[in-house]
Amino acid sequence: MKNSVDIAPAKGKLGVLVVGVDGAVATTFIAGVLNVRKGSGKPIGSLTQMATIRIGERADNVFPYIKDFVPLADINDLVFGGWDIRNENCYEAANVAKVLSERDINAVEQELKAIHPMKAVFDQFYVKRLEGTHVKTGKSKFDLAEQLRADIRNFKAENKLDRLVVIWAGSTEIFLKVSDVHKSLATFEKGMKENHPDIAPSMLYAYAALSEGVPFINGAPNLTVDIPAIIELAEENELPIIGKDFKTGQTLLKTVIAPMLKARMLGLNGWFSSNILGNRDGEVLDDPGSFKTKEESKLSVIDSILQPELYPDLYKDYYHKVKIHYYPPRGDNKEGWDNIDIFGWLGYPMELKINFLCRDSILAAPVALDLVLFMDLARRAGFKGIQDWLSFYFKSPMHLPEAVPENDLFIQLMKLKNTLRVMMGEEIISHVENDGVLSSLNLTDSI
């Protein structure tokens, strides 16, 4: 058994500040946690609350719950707040979102009504389809970031919190590439003071959180924390960061189906994906600039799994297309269609058809909960910088520049659980075990 990581205890209250706190994902997440606390619902979809983790050999048959194995914060100790461009309390916002039933919303009415958003940093240049009525003003982006820092300090003091986590559950911003202003913390801070156009509002939230000693999670495909300046700040302040873009519906399926094709050495000619979505996220993605950001996130997944450079006969020239259509009648109930043209033995063609009728925020809410609890754990464990062990939760997970991204869902899950095992001083599980066969070959001593 290896030495465990020194993890500070989860004492006191954990503040959860959500950017986009009045949105569908945030209100579903918050109302869901409040219902679970009351015993009126179960946290289905949450690894931290419902999943087990194997310890030791298979023959030992030891499978504790993750929440009992690692020292996570208790969901009863979470205190919610955040920012939004609309001035509605979370009860009003949850009724507007229409994701949860009236029964589930009304069960926690008073708690939701007590959560009022702080004024948001917003610029319509970066999200064309939204208008902000509850927004901050300032002479520069640096000034706005300082206002966010004050919000974080005040929220912590007013609620007598021990620790905080900030999570972006806001809308998708326009597509931005890494530019010179992002290359270092010094150039970034100078750019904020000069209102550089390549510095989007989401980056200001990340800067403010990390400057206040708070981990940051990016749930959208925005560039946000995936720039050298913010990574430098996270390393400097010894804080964990992670993103980007919650993996919920269609891409979740891709990270299962694509590994299956590769595992069986089946070829791919084309993968066409289409979605309809009617919530505010769908409206935002109706703008070409925001859709470009989402498209880049979705398109990157298959390539990294199939590795066409290693398997040119199977994957070199496949065609991949992604479409998202705003369709208001559908609301938060997203529908995704996938047509997958594959080929097998001697090149004979076959097809896969997938129709996934999912609920976007219902899938995203447990992801938000897990990430908040795991990032708080990472902070208490002294982890800093990019937390690629949490790539399981993202469409386009951040990774070190020299590392090959891993998008196979089950490899990601193995990495997550092995990280938890290492934290607690348990051996990692490779699935190569002393099951009799290895003993007969006298190989066990070398494994």
Task: Write structural notes for this entry.
Helix content is 38%, strand content 16%. The chain has a seven-stranded parallel beta sheet, with helices on both faces. It has a four-stranded mixed beta sheet with strand order 8-7-9-10. It has 17 helices and eleven strands. The protein is globular. The chain is α/β, with parallel strands linked by helices.
Short description:
The chain is built from 17 helices and 11 strands.
Largest sheet: 7 strands, parallel
The whole-number mean of residue pLDDT values reads 93
Helix content range: 25-40%
Radius of gyration (CA) equals 22 Å
Oligomer: single chain
CATH superfamily of the largest domain: NAD(P)-binding Rossmann-like Domain
Which range does the strand content fall in? 15-25%
- Give the spatial strand order of the biggest sheet: 3-2-1-4-5-6-11
For the termini, the CA-CA separation is 14 Å
Structural class per helix/strand content?
Answer: alpha/beta
Helix count equals 17
Total domains: 2
Question: What's the CATH C level of the largest domain?
Answer: Alpha Beta
Low-confidence stretches: 436-441, 443-447
Q: Can you tell me the overall shape?
A: globular
H and E string: EHHHEHHHEHEHHEHEHEHHHEEEHEHH
The strand count comes to: 11
CATH architecture of the largest domain: 3-Layer(aba) Sandwich
**What is the CATH topology classification name of the largest domain?**
Rossmann fold
What order do the helices and strands come in, and which of them pair?
Blueprint lengths: L13 E6 L4 H15 L8 H4 L15 H4 L8 E7 L5 H8 L4 H5 L2 H5 L4 E2 L21 H18 L4 E6 L16 H9 L7 H11 L4 E3 L9 H9 L3 E3 L7 H14 L3 E11 L2 H5 L3 H19 L5 H4 L3 E8 L6 E11 L5 E11 H21 L4 E2 L22 H15 L13 H4 L7
Parallel strand pairs: 1-2, 1-4, 2-3, 4-5, 5-6, 6-11, 7-8
Antiparallel strand pairs: 7-9, 9-10
Helix pairs in contact: 1-4, 1-15, 7-9, 8-10, 11-13
